[in-house]
Amino acid sequence: MQRLVGRKADGWLPSLGRLEPGALTAGNRAIDEAAVAAGRDPRETRRILNVSGEFAADAADAADAADAADTTDTTSTLHGPSAHWVEVPGQLAVQDGIDTFVRFSDDPRTLEQFAEEVIPALREIAGQR
């Protein structure tokens, strides 16, 4: 599928919680190689990532949830304070060229926190790469 994306598509939209370790990097590499082989600039393909999980009030809340989810695992849902929600996607923006993050949630408070605390920091990180 990634080869087809590289040859023809405008973007790739996987979900963080569905990716196996290394799949994001491997998928991006396959897209880039296919784009070059098709005479396309790989930068023409947007890299979008669905992210899901829950905000924890602070690091203590995140530690309490560590039994349920590894908060350092970048291939699953996220759980932690806003800083963690910046750190993990920020790494993916820098290392894997993700340029857009889609936040799964229908909770107004969660969306507000993501918009106010996470997005501005991710934009700053993206501007540095």
Describe, in plain words, how this protein is organized in 3D:
- It is a single chain.
- Helix content is 50%, strand content 14%.
- The protein is an alpha/beta fold and 129 residues long.
- α1 packs across α2 (23-37).
- Mean pLDDT is 85; it is low at 65-75.
- The strands form two sheets. A three-stranded parallel β-sheet has the order 1-2-5, with helices on one face. Strands 3-4 form a two-stranded parallel ribbon.
Q: Segments where pLDDT lies below 50 for 5+ residues? A: 65-75
Mean pLDDT figure: 85
SS summary, helix count: 5
Given the C-alpha coordinates, what overall shape results? elongated
Which structural class do the helices and strands define? alpha/beta
User: What is the number of strand segments?
Assistant: 5
Distance between the termini: 27 Å
Beta content comes to: 5-15%
Strand order of the largest sheet: 1-2-5
Produce the secondary structure layout.
Layout (H helix, E strand, L loop, with lengths): L1 H7 L2 E2 L10 H15 L8 E6 L1 E3 L3 H6 L13 E3 L1 H15 L3 E4 L4 H21 L1
Parallel strand pairs: 1-2, 2-5, 3-4
Helix pairs in contact: 1-2, 4-5
Summed up:
This protein is α/β, with parallel strands linked by helices and 129 residues long.
